[in-house]
Design brief:
The complex is a heterodimer of chains A (about 500) and B (about 400).
Chain A (H helix, E strand, L loop, with lengths): L3 E12 L2 E12 L3 E5 L6 H9 L7 E7 L2 E2 L5 H6 L2 E4 L11 H5 L6 E2 L2 E2 L1 H14 L15 H14 L4 E5 L7 H16 L3 E5 L3 H7 L2 E6 L2 E7 L7 H9 L18 E11 L7 E11 L3 E5 L6 H8 L6 E9 L2 E3 L4 H6 L2 E4 L3 H5 L6 H6 L7 E2 L2 E2 L1 H14 L16 H14 L4 E5 L7 H16 L3 E5 L3 H7 L2 E6 L2 E7 L5 H14 L1
Helix pairs in contact in A: 4-5, 8-17, 13-14
Chain B lengths: L1 H11 L1 H16 L7 H10 L1 H15 L8 H17 L4 H25 L4 H20 L4 E2 L3 H6 L20 H27 L7 H23 L6 H19 L1 H11 L1 H5 L5 H27 L1 E2 L7 H11 L11 H20 L4 H26 L1
Antiparallel strand pairs in B: 1-2
Helix pairs in contact in B: 2-16, 3-16, 4-11, 4-12, 4-14, 4-15, 4-16, 5-6, 5-7, 5-14, 6-7, 6-14, 9-10, 11-12, 12-14, 15-16, 15-17, 16-17
Classes of the chains: A alpha/beta (about 500), B mainly alpha (about 400).
Chain lengths: ~500, ~400
């Protein structure tokens, strides 16, 4: 048995109101590739952030034992000094600097006041070779593809003398052949003695590279599976990932009749606004009926948010094509205002970034999307506005001293309620709720579910985008599964199970 | 709880306390001269342009900390056009309207680049600062242009006779028109506040605590009456004060009670969220800069009226006075926060410091140093007070 390089013992990490990690244990042996799998929000990234010192010692409980000693990292530099290097999901390279400059950013060769560029580039080339890149180290990052950029990240890590390399979703933005190259490099580096931890949703890749697979669920490590022959069936991993029982965390809907088709999206194709030949939505067709809750399931980056925002008055994407029908009539939205007027609402997943004006009051946020109806000749009827805000505050049971309170001071759940209030006040027929319960506690989640039930009871249609499988299963009448920009499955609530949804995603991911 | 309440209101009115301290300091430093009626009147008419510009600047800053560097040049450009029109015998009303239009067009020109082409406001208005300064030189032909139109000077508070005439009759020591107007305003204010409070209460809305509201009302009324009395003892109401009053009232209303005003705050607070609420954020940026141009032209009118003529160098550095007044008055450098009364306090604070130091015969160079420090302290205070909350 090989030497244990890293052991994380009883790690517990709490955020206000949420226990992100609960007594997690992880053992990584020297020279192995260890995979961490789990749903979004299971705690994988949090665990890696604890390990690399993003969350300093003292903000969590438990021990990190690395190379035989207990480590107390206060910042990323501390863990890097020991040879633990993390490569984050979003590439952290600077586009207008060369490969060499990027690789040694923060680790400059030569003296502080006199960088030795010759040495920099010579060293860079050495490490680039190790990851199979032959590009000049003076090439600008912006001029190489994403696949190569990811390799540069690995070379950068090697240049820091990495002994333990952590890769967070390294292939999420890569195509099949680039992904394969990266995985092969990982295997190559393993032969040279490097230990790595890989976080990925792509189970086929995990099964291809990993020696051991640890499953994380709801902030706890569930099991560690050995994969000596590199052919572990994906179903075996999925079972560990989702093996959770759905109890009555979801309120039942009564007396809701599902009616005619309310909105229909046909052959909807959207391209990325920056990389113009990258399709983010590929020929998507979905529909939602009156009184129906339709769930859209999928992993992060599946194109769900992009689909919703491009439908919502073209607020995302380029070169949008396809048809949109409301109540059977074809409509075209050029602006968000058109969409709102046609009684469509999109409740964003990013309530702080895209949803709320945090420096303004609950009142101001509630009325913002429909302020015209409170104003005549551009003069706001402030009394009426106040009444509206109070009405929605009571209806949604938002906890706040007054509606004049700044939204920035509210808890996540209450902010989410203000966001919902804002869009309910815009009086839509179709609401697209994007991750409506992200980052809020269980009690508030339940209340949000009740609000959704009320909405469909009033004959409105709800499209709910969610990465949480139990939520999608518990709330939806019908479920679309989306992956890599396409609809890869449609399931009724009766036939849908977590395993079925997961296998829809996994199977199509491999198909390319 | 009680303590937190007091702390909060101290923070809320911190600039007023700062103003009181500064006035007290100069009252001692100038042996009371700072509050003499004549100096008081000068404070208003000398700084009229700051009040007007700062109000416009506030709207730009609200949209996200964006500033307009070109206002000084626009003042000289619009002023030059108006002065030369009047010098050629043009009607003063027509000339004034043309000046305002020129200002609005200058603002629209810059607003176009900022709002629809996404040129950073700093760059777009820096270009305007150079460009309009050059054009100002062109319209002046490189020379000063005098203004002889009495009506123009009277209306916009220029020359020697820059006061509202005393219709009611008083004497040299007490201007009755000023007194009557001041008392009337005080009565309207008090009655208005009480009525609105009663109405709010009747409809079940939350109102400020009685004590706080009363103190606020009494303080405002006393200060207002005192200002009235002081002005009355020296020729009465400066004409420029009328313009300042109009601008302050209009813009206080616009920022508080109209949809455009609300959108200005929303854009500065979170542009993406505002856009996703169906609001055309580009138009909001555009409007802010058109308005800034318009108010720059009005400031230009007040400036050339006061100087009884226009020069190509007029308005230099005015943009900085306006920007400083906004930040001292509590506007956030990141946008979304700030209000008209705050900006007026900021402008008065700057004015008092200027005038106090002049009376104390502080060297002009050191005056600049002090102004710079005041700005730094004010904004640091703002930044720190926000950090505390987190």
């Amino acid at each position: 048995m090989a030497k244990v390089l890293l052991e994380m013992k009883n790690i517990t990490k709490e955020f206000p109101g949420v226990k992100a990690l609960d007594n997690v244990n992880l053992k990584v042996e020297e020279g192995e590739i260890h995979a961490l799998v789990g749903e979004n929000g299971a705690g994988k990234s949090t665990l890696m952030n604890v390990l690399s010192g993003v969350y300093p010692f003292g903000t969590y409980t438990g021990d990190i034992i690395y190379d035989g000693e207990v480590c107390k990292f206060n910042k990323i530099k501390d863990s890097e000094a020991k040879g633990i290097v993390i490569i984050h999901q979003e590439l952290a390279l600077i586009p207008y600097m060369s490969i060499g400059e990027n690789m040694f950013l923060g680790n400059e060769q030569g003296k502080k006041a006199a960088i030795n560029w010759d040495k920099t580039h010579a060293e860079a080339v050495k490490y680039l070779k190790q990851v199979g890149l032959t590009d000049s180290s003076k090439t600008l990052i912006k001029d190489i593809g994403v696949g190569k950029q990811q390799m540069v990240e690995i070379a950068k890590a090697l240049a820091k003398n990495a002994k333990l390399l952590i890769l967070d979703e390294p292939t999420s933005s890569l195509n099949e052949s680039d992904s394969r190259k990266l995985l092969d490099i990982m295997l190559e580096l393993k032969k040279q003695g490097l230990t790595s931890i890989i976080i990925s949703h792509k189970l086929n890749e995990i099964s291809y590279v990993a020696d051991k697979i640890t499953v994380v669920r709801d902030g706890s490590t569930i099991e560690t599976i050995d994969n000596p022959d590199k052919n572990l069936p994906e179903d075996r991993i999925i079972k560990g990932m989702v093996g959770r029982e759905i109890t009555d965390r979801f309120p039942k809907r009564h007396d809701v009749t599902i009616g005619e088709t309310m909105m229909e999206v046909k052959n909807w194709t959207v391209f990325h606004p920056k990389y113009e030949n990258r399709k983010v939505c590929d020929n998507v067709s979905i529909h939602v009926k009156k009184g129906e809750v339709v769930g859209i399931s999928g992993l992060m980056g599946a194109g769900r948010t992009e689909l919703a925002m491009s439908v919502f008055g073209r607020s995302y994407g380029a070169n949008i094509s396809g048809q949109l029908f409301l109540n059977g009539k074809e409509v075209e939205f050029k602006t968000v205002r058109d969409a709102i007027k046609a009684k469509l609402a999109y409740v964003t997943e990013d309530r702080k970034g895209n949803g709320l004006v945090l420096s303004n009051s609950i009142k101001v946020n509630t009325s913002l999307a429909n302020l015209d109806s409170l104003a005549s000749n551009m003069v706001i009827d402030k009394d009426a506005e106040y009444n509206v805000a109070v009405e929605y505050k009571d209806k949604l049971k938002t906890k706040c001293p007054t509606v004049e309170q700044n939204v920035g001071n509210l808890s996540g759940g209450n902010q989410q309620k203000v966001l919902l209030a804002k869009w309910m006040y815009a009086d839509p027929d179709v609401l697209i709720l994007d991750e409506p319960t992200r980052g809020i506690d269980v009690g508030a989640k339940y209340e949000i579910y009740c609000i959704i039930n009320d909405l469909v009871k009033q004959g409105k249609s709800v499209i709910m985008i969610s990465s949480e499988l139990p939520e999608v299963l518990g709330m939806s009448d019908r479920i679309y599964v989306m992956n890599e920009g396409r609809i890869v499955g449609e399931l009724s609530s009766e036939e849908a199970t977590q395993e079925k949804i997961m296998s829809c995603i996994v199977k199509t991911g491999r198909g390319e | 709880m009680e303590k937190a309440g007091i702390g909060k209101s101290i923070q809320k009115y911190s600039m007023i306390f700062a103003l009181v301290i500064v006035v007290a300091f100069f009252y001692v430093g100038t042996e009371g001269k700072i509050l003499l009626p004549q100096n008081f009147n000068n404070l208003i008419s000398q700084n009229a342009y700051v009040f007007v510009l700062a109000t416009g600047m506030l709207l730009c800053i609200l949209t996200g900390g964006n500033i307009d560097l070109s206002v000084g040049s626009v003042i000289a450009f619009a002023g030059g056009i108006g002065a030369s029109m009047m010098a050629k015998g043009g009607n003063w009303i027509v000339a004034s309207i043309v000046m305002l239009l020129v200002g609005a067009l200058a603002g629209a020109f810059q607003g176009y680049w900022i709002a629809y082409v996404n040129v950073p406001p700093f760059i777009a208005t820096l270009a305007g600062m150079y460009g309009f300064r050059g054009l100002a030189n062109v319209v002046h032909g490189g020379q000063a242009i005098g203004i002889g139109d009495e009506a123009f000077l009277n209306v916009f508070g220029g020359g020697a006779d820059c006061y509202v005439p005393d219709f009611i009759g008083g004497n040299e020591n007490l201007n009755m028109t000023c007194m009557v107007a001041g008392v009337a305003i005080a009565i309207i204010y008090v009655v208005g506040s009480v009525v609105s409070r009663i109405r709010k209460k009747a409809q079940g809305y939350v109102v400020d605590p009685v004590l706080g509201a009363t103190v606020k009302m009494v303080v405002i009324t006393v200060v207002e009456l005192w200002v009235t009395y002081t002005l009355s003892r020296h020729k009465g109401i400066p004409s420029s004060l009328i313009w300042i009053g109009i601008i302050v009232l209009i813009y206080n209303y616009v920022t508080n009670n109209t949809t455009v005003g609300r959108y200005l705050y929303a854009v500065g607070g979170n542009e993406k969220a505002t856009r996703l609420s169906g609001i055309n954020t580009k138009n909001i940026f555009f409007i802010a800069y058109v308005n800034m141009g318009l108010l720059a032209a009005l400031a230009g009118i007040l400036t050339i009226a006061r100087a009884v003529g226009s020069q190509p160098t007029f308005g230099q550095g005015y943009e900085m006075d306006a920007i400083a007044a906004c930040f001292i008055g509590g506007a956030s450098a990141y946008g979304g926060i700030g209000n008209v009364p705050g900006v007026i306090i900021g402008a008065i604070l700057m004015g008092v410091i200027n005038q106090g130091m002049s009376i104390m015969a502080v060297d002009a160079n050191y005056q600049k140093v002090v102004k710079g420090l005041v700005l730094l302290v004010a904004v640091t205070f703002d930044v720190l007070s926000k950090r505390e909350k987190k």
